[in-house]
Amino acid sequence: MNLEIAGKTAIVTGAARGIGAAIAERFAAEGASIVLVDVNDAEEQAERLRRSGGRALALVADVLEQSSIDAMVSQACESFGGVDILVNNAGFTRDMRIGRMTEPDWDAVVDVILKGAFLCTKAVSGLMTERGWGRIVNISSRAHLGNPGQANYSAAKAGLLGFTRALALELGRFGVTVNAVAPGIVDTEAVRALAHFDKIRGAAEKATPISRLGKVHDIADAVAFLASERASYITGEVLHVTGGRY
Question: Which of 110, 123, 168, 175 could cross-link to 132 by cystine, CB 3.0-4.6 Å?
Fold first, then answer.
């Protein structure tokens, strides 16, 4: 299927590894130019894409710093001529029960996931509406349904869904769609580094109709579809990529 995103420019936040890196790779395979944004250096990923014939730029940026976001958009426009696609993927977990969760634990997780998406989206939405075409894909999580020990993460990922639906109503008349992808447990380096990973994997596989963990390319394929011309009449939706686990 031709997704018709060749020649488009995509910004992917949290792109140094894991799901973000896979999304960047999927877009590059479709012929899009990629801006890989992360608080860590994503140059290794960008160089790998360039060696495969892709057009990629790595930027170290904090999605909570306006100066970083302004530089991100400016460099994307200077290098590739604009911004057509934004994937708000930056985020992390800081899990603990509510009685032990501190205010900084709450703020750190909620701010990066939710405020970061707000700031990045605000920075590129004008470019998209001026062109009359744009795709914004927010990476939520099955955790938006609620997970014990993840009040901060669950709240932030649920907030992304309200954010997605509000923006879909605002931006649809300008040719900009806004959707969300909600992954289940995905086999990434970060997940493998969790304490009791084998126990977590076993429980997840038992509870999932398709009894395996997700792979990063499962999420990347879903994002690529929603960012494509093939999904031009889909907006305000959340696509669960969970193997059937709710």
Answer: 175
